[in-house]
Amino acid sequence: MLARYLIFFLIIVAIEVYFLFGIKAFIQDFSQNKKSVILSIVYFFFGLNLLLGVVGFFYPPPNWNGFFRFVSAACLILVLCKLLGDVFFLIDDIIRLFRWMVASLKPKAEEAIEAGSKISRLKFLTNLAVTFTVIPAVGFLYGIVRGAYKYRVHKVKVPSPKIPAAFNGFKIVQISDIHTGSFLDNSALNRAFDIVMQQAPDLIVFTGDLVNNEAKETIGFEEVYKKLTAPHGVYSVLGNHDYGDYVQWETEEAKQKNLNDLKQVHATAGWRLLMNEHVALEKNGQQIALLGIENWGGSLHFPKYGKMPEAHKDTEKYPFKILMSHDPSHWEKQVQPEYPDIDLTLSGHTHGMQLGIEIPGFRFSPSQWVYKQWAGLYKQGSQFLYVNRGLGFLGYPGRLGIWPEITVIELEKIA
Fold first, then answer.
1. pTM, to two decimals
2. In this predicted model, what pLDDT tens digit does every residue of 333-357 receive, in sequence order?
3. Which of 2, 49, 76, 343 is the most exposed place for a label (fewest CB within 10 A)?
């Protein structure tokens, strides 16, 4: 483990050093004042990354939390942007090497070699190197500072003749993927929940990943969770991060205790956690079914904890069925072929990769390379799936283009 971290650290140093030499060449014609400002900025982030790298030898990055994790993630993003810039610097150096080799083959070799050694960088490539470093860096930093909390309310209608008349106009607010441990404090989440309550929901559902890894991340957020209330209740399911599968636990008992503690957090908040079961929602004497299962991953080898037969049992009498299932791949892999009477599935999980473009007539996210259904409303036959883009964030501590989402789903009875 230490050897792998050392290799990673040396790669970062190499990226930083190569970028530094490239920048020095880029600014050689600048005024002394401009050179001083630019080099001060470059040296500052170079030194910060080296400091974080050295700290990592004594305090491993997986243990970093809060502000420390926030700063380290921002620095890593800058390193990746510098790596992109280094690609253009490298192309430039290869071209310069080739030009030097050509010059060395000309008559009067000594003069040619001397002239070749003075071949300057191609201005076009150095400009590209800086452009493709600065623009992505500014974008990603904006995503951290503002994008992570740029909450958006998405409103959709789900029409079906199977919806009982009493549930026509029934409003469901869905949130997903809070990842509490990624927040520095509870103020941003508190504001998001205020927006949820402003939608006047009949029902609130949370489709998994309350934490990154451990139940202790929820400490200090207990009162915020309790803000969510609705006439027909608040219901939740577990996501893949809620099981503690990405932590090296000392014992299996410790892992199980963590999961039990997290379940208690749901209960204390007033959220009914559905574990492979269903409940009836009643309005004016008419009923629909709400099913909730544990995480069932159909892609990337995520565990299949969910047990649809248990959740679906005895639901035949309900005319309309809603399923809460964290991973959207479950819809195509099991729900559609085996449970055609599930009318609406609510999922999250993908985050839309927290990066992409969504404008009228065009949508793109790297998430679509992994998940066929990655954000928004989908329909196949008479079955619907809604994939929430997530409220929180994980890994990259921000969002760019794929903003945090609060979904308002209105049931619409049609003839």
1. 0.84
2. 999 999 999 999 999 999 999 999 9
3. 2
